[in-house]
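Hello,

Following up on my earlier ticket. Below are the two sequence lines again, exactly as submitted.
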Amino acid sequence: MTKENETILETSNVKLWYGNKEALHGIDLNFPEKGITALIGPSGSGKSTYLRALNRMHDLEDNVTVTGSFNFKGQDIYAPTTDTVDLRKKIGMVFQQPNPFPFSIYDNVAFGLRLAGVKDKETLDRAVEESLKAASIWEEVKDNLNKSALGLSGGQQQRVSIARVLATQPDLLLLDEPTSALDPVSAHNIEDTLLELRDQYAMIIVTHSLSQASRISDRTAFFMNGNLVEVGDTRKIFIDPEKQETADYISGRFG
Amino acid sequence: MKAKTADKIATGVIYGIAASVAFVLIAMLAFILVRGLPHLSWHFLTAAARSFEAGGGIGIQLFNSFYLLILALLISFPIALGAAIYLNEYAKPSLFITIVRTAIEVMSSLPSVVVGLFGFLIFVVKFHLGFSILSGAIALTIFNLPILTRSIETSLSQIPNLQREAGAALGLSRFETVIHVILPASVPSIVTGVVISAGRVFGEAAALIYTAGQSAPTLDFTDWNPFNLASPLSPFRPAETLAVHIWKINSEGIMPDLSAVSAGASAVLIIVVLLFNFSARRLGNLLYKKLTNS
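Thanks for your patience. The regenerated structure is below:
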């Protein structure tokens, strides 16, 4: 399944401190232009921390220091000249908790485009429909686009959140445990959505579910104690890992 | 068994205390309403006050109260909103922020008569604004600002952080997140806070006695040019409000139907404040439904 494709994001020697405590100890990791990379590892291994460094979400917190190089399509993510607002339009993010805004479904999905200055009703209608279709929720909500997104189920809200991110046409999609707050059926729907998107987007997903990583990802990276232990084709990581820690984690001996 | 008995006694005592609080409020309201309601009439609500003979009304005072309230809110709301947004969305812990917060707390416990005397010395005397609606509105702003700021800040802080992250992750700047996500989501509770503070401002007397003044010159309700002193809209005319009127006639009124006027005016004041309080939550809920289409 892995195709040779260009690298969209290169990170090297990524270190991160919460105050004086070093949480990431120098991560080197690259991501291809298309397909899903899963970040797995026990709680506290630094996988979410690493993910949130990629679109500078740590900027919202005090006391966090990030160093290392981040090359996103030739752009240095942490350069002083980088506009985080611009950056986050290109690197979209979906969170653990579905977090639709308290507006209608339509307004949620059209939100990013409207902010970007799109006013044409037809363009918006088309983008909303396409995004909701891409997030596999169009059929469920097409007759209720003007209803509040808060009235949807958790799984539906999460897919609307994905549609909202897709509407702004990001190059890279970060997913921080997008199914861990959902019931199994909804989680399954989200996985299907991601599988359909993987030919068009680069996606990085943090997940606690090994079966999820094995089902949907092309590559898997195993994190432990703030280090990247091993990265490679998902098949290889799950069947024939190189490191003993990886094998132990995969076979459920800890974590 | 012993623990159970103790629990029963404690529960009873706590109920009793809560009931006595409610009783004091209800008794007071009933007293004011029973005394005041018989004197209410359209004439009483609209006619001008009379100083020496019976049959006067509270029309001008009532209008003044509302006009002052609106002006005070027009001045204090934008300032309070800005301060609250800064404190809740932007401020990072620092000495400056500690000073601002302490200042707000001290301001909110200032006795209103002190605010009134300060307003008198600064605005009425020093800035030559005289006893005027404008002086009164500024005094009311000082009186209202800390409470309103705190109430808006609480409204903002109730919006979960997820919404801020969602905004940021969509490529919104902090300001855009505040304007497009946080404020719309908190409008209902902000409105509730504003209306409740309006009730407090409406009934305020001490801050106005030496700023908006204790006289209610006759108004010409056909003249809406704010630059004419006889116009109801003029911010430069003295304006006795309802609450000040009640204080005034009880301390130095000489009209024969003094107690009737006082009782009637008190009833009107209480009814308006109650209306503010009851409508606050309904208005907030209504707005929330409207904004979220739920």
